[in-house]
Amino acid sequence: MSVVSQVILKADDELRYPSSGELESIKGFLQTGEQRLRIATTLAENEKKIVQEASKQLWQKRPDFISPGGNAYGQRERSLCLRDYGWYLRLITYGILAGDKEPIEKIGLIGVKEMYHSLDVPVAGMVESIRCLKNASLQLLSAEEASEAAPYFDFIIQAMS
């Protein structure tokens, strides 16, 4: 949920106008809007490149994943992994646009460990894949943009760890 939505809902629950501090938080949110849009646009426009680079990094670190018996062995399994990478990247852009991690949690993290366990997908491997996704993504951003985007990747990494 965006800062604007949070402020409005809180004020409405308490039957009051937003406080000056809350209005300042909205002002700050709006001032970073252009940067958040740039970051989301860069990530979206470069999804294929980011996913390819992230998977390349992961397979180099963990060749056992794509070896016979590995969870990403075979074209179908590998395609499913790459699909998940794109899905997580999209979730991250939602969080960046909202300026909040709640969309990531609500849409993508509730029950994720249980799901991967039930599919016999090593969660540690998914954590490593998100780290690779982070590295590949941040390479395309300016230092300032990367520092804004990094916590959204870290949020997923922490939630899965």
Q: In short, what is this structure?
A:
The chain is mainly α and 161 residues long. It has nine helices and no strands. 22% of the residues are buried.
Describe the overall structure.
The structure is a single chain. By secondary structure, the protein is mostly helical. The protein has two domains: 1-31; 33-160, Globin-like. The protein has nine helices and no strands. It has helices at 3-13, 20-31, 33-45, 47-61, 75-98, 102-109, 112-118, 123-138, 143-160. The longest helix is centred in the middle third of the chain and has 24 residues, at 75-98. The mean pLDDT is 91.
CATH architecture of the largest domain: Orthogonal Bundle
CATH top level assignment of the largest domain: Mainly Alpha
Radius of gyration of CA atoms, rounded to a whole number? 18 Å
Calculate the mean pLDDT score and round it: 91
Compute the number of structural domains: 2
Order of helices and strands: HHHHHHHHH
The best one-word shape is: elongated
CATH superfamily of the largest domain: Phycocyanins
Helix/strand structural class = mainly alpha
Share of helix, binned: over 70%
What is the element layout, followed by pairings?
Elements: H1 3-13, H2 20-31, H3 33-45, H4 47-61, H5 75-98, H6 102-109, H7 112-118, H8 123-138, H9 143-160
